[in-house]
Each structure stands twice: as structure tokens, then as C-alpha cells.
Amino acid sequence: MSEVTLINAIVGIILALITAFCFNIGIVYQKKGLKEAALKGIEIKTEEGFISIIKTFLKLFKVRSWFIGAISGVAGWFPYIISIGMVGVLVTEPVMATGFIFFVFAAMKVLNERVGIIEYIAIGILTVSPILIGVAGISDVELDLVEFVPSLVIFLTISVSLSVISLTIARKKRGKSSEGLFIMFGGAILFALGGSATNILAQALIQAGDFQWYTIFQLPFGIFWFIFAGNYIVLWIFLGFWMMAIFNLSSIPYYQSGFQKGKILIMYPILDSIALLFPIFAGIFVFKQTFANFPLFFIALLLTVFATIVLSKYQVAIEEMDITGNPTKEDLPS
Fold first, then answer.
1. 165 and 257 part of one domain
2. In the chain, pLDDT over 90 holds for what percent of residues?
3. Nearest 5°: phi and psi at 138?
């Protein structure tokens, strides 16, 4: 299997960094919007069914902060898809963990918080990790859309089953302190599967060749190209698009409900860890992506996880900001 060229690796990593910025900006504004919505009596209640969730989100779209966050998150998907197409989900997801640097500088500016030596080390690690990943000899993504099906089915079966089990337990724990934990776990898995589906979509689009005017219609309606023209690649454009849409859209009410019901200090590490690890497992075992220097990649991954844990308290602090004013230094978890 050939390696990704250095130029493609650099561009793919830069796009992943842009994605991280958009996603993290979106998270801050959406959380602020959820707090504003709560003051107006708007709360995401997954137990009340699909229609109730839709009505709640229609109300949330009228909350300016939440809407800005949603737009920022959507904007981040464009560089995300291109990045995955260039370097694969196995690279894009770890690089996106550098988004935590944004929360640190936001904490320094908004919270007037001093950053200690440990935090500076973590920032340095997150700055260096993408470089280590880039020079680790990333294999080109050569996805066989036939041979990968059995491993994909196994991966999806296990992942979706874990999500369903977790959400089922959450329903039984309704009103208890552990409810938010199980909701977040189930929603985070769905969110992570959306990233894996994006990889399928990106690789299918690449294999389809040059982007044509009708390609946009193949995303939602590609099944007809397969039925009437026998185009197998377009079938996976269709499946990748709808899996990406379904997993990501279905995850939103669950992980945002987890934010409202559970402690942010617990909820965010769950979301971030699952969003990082599940696509990596998919990259290795489903998409068969490798590195010429796998130990270097593994070291970079461990360093990223460590730095993410260290800096997560700043993300928590930003998320717990009082919408009526800036928090004091005491608001930052010790």
C-alpha cells in the first residue's frame, strides 16, 4: 500500500485543524444557547419522542447563540470531508483533538485564567502531535468497496448495539443521576459512527472520479444509479451520505441532552474519547489504513489523549460559563 505524499498529508492535517476550530467554536456557542434556552423553559427531552425533539430543535434555531454554533459546526464538515478523503479518518480524528488549544486560549482571555507549566506542556504536545502523525508514513486510503463490507457490518453491528443498549439503560434510569451518563455514551457512539460514515462517503466520491454537476444528486438519490445503471460506487456514495446524515443527526439530541442532564466534567471526556477512539478503530480494522512508522503514530496518539485529558478542564470551564457574565477564576475546575 502506497504512502500519502507529504504535501497531501500537510494539506489534510491543515483542513483537520480548520475543522477542529469550527467544531469547537460551534460547541461553545451551542452550549451557551442551551443555557439561554433553559432559562426560557426549552429542554431536550429524548424520552418524549421524535416529534417532541423536532419541536424543541425548531425552538433552539430561534436562539441566536445556538444557531451560530450550529452553522459553525455545519461549516466544519466541508474541510472535514476533504481531510478524510486525503489522509483518512485515522489521521483526521487525532489531529482534531488539537481543538482543545482553542479552549485554553479562550480560558486565558475570557476567564483571565493563568496557565501553568503542565498546561503549556499539553499545548506543546497537541502542537507537535499532528507533525508526528504527518511524518509517521501515512498509508494512502485504498478502500476496496467490496472487501471491506464484512468488517464494516461487524463494526456497525457492535457499535450500534452498544449505543442501543446504553440508550435503553438510560430510559430505565430516567430521573436518576446516571441517566445523563448513559445518554451521552449512546449519543457519542452515534456521533463517532457519523465520522466513520464520512470516510466511506469521501472514499466513494474519490473513486467515482471527477465531480460532475449531477454528483450532488447522487448523494441522496444514488440508489437509482445503482438500480438502473448498476453503478456500485455510486451505491456507496448514497449509503455513505445517508449513514453520515442519520448517525450525526440522531446523535445530536442525545449528546446535547447528556450535556443538560449530566455533569460537564464527566460528559465531555466521554464524548471526546469515543469520538476519537471509535473512528481510529474503524480506520485500522475496517478501512485497513496503516503507518510505515506505527510506533510513532501510537506515541502521538497517547500524547494526544494525555493532553486532551489535561486540557479538558478548560473546555468544562467554558461550557459552564454563566451566560449573564464572565465567571471568576473559582469557576475553573481545579
1. yes
2. 19
3. -65, 130
In terms of domains, do 249 and 129 share one? no
50 and 125 in a single domain? The answer is yes
Range(s) of the domain holding residue 47: 1-140+290-334
Query: Cα separation of 109 and 75, whole Å?
Result: 25
In the three-class reduction of DSSP (H, G, I as helix; E, B as strand; rest coil), residue 138 is classed as: strand
Q: How many CB atoms lie within 10 A of CB 208?
A: 18
C-alpha cell at 299: 506515541
Question: Domain check: are 168 and 207 in the same one?
Answer: yes
- As a whole number, mean pLDDT of residues 299-323 equals 65
Considering the domain architecture, whether residues 12 and 116 belong to the same structural domain is answered as yes
Q: Could you tell me the pTM of the whole model?
A: 0.72
CA distance 244 to 222: 14
Distance CA 214, CA 257 (A): 38
Residues 6+ apart with CB under 8 A from 111: 317, 318, 326, 327, 328, 329, 331, 332
User: Which amino acid does the sequence have at 258?
Assistant: G
Phi, psi of 139 (to 5 degrees): -75, 145
CA distance 35 to 321: 9
Same domain, 236 and 318: no
Helices (H), 47-116: 50-60, 64-87, 89-96, 100-110
Q: For residues 257 and 307, state if they share a domain.
A: no
pLDDT, tens digit, 9 for 90 and up, residues 145-157: 899 999 999 999 9
pLDDT tens profile 110-134: 445 566 777 777 777 777 777 677 6
Q: How many Å apart are CA 17 and CA 94, to the nearest integer?
A: 10
- Report which of 270, 274, 248 is spatially closest to residue 180, judged by C-alpha positions: 270
How many domains, the chain? 2
Residues 262 and 155 in one domain: yes
DSSP string, 104-149: HHHHHHHS-PPP-HHHHHHHHHHHHHHHHHHTS-BBP----TTTTH
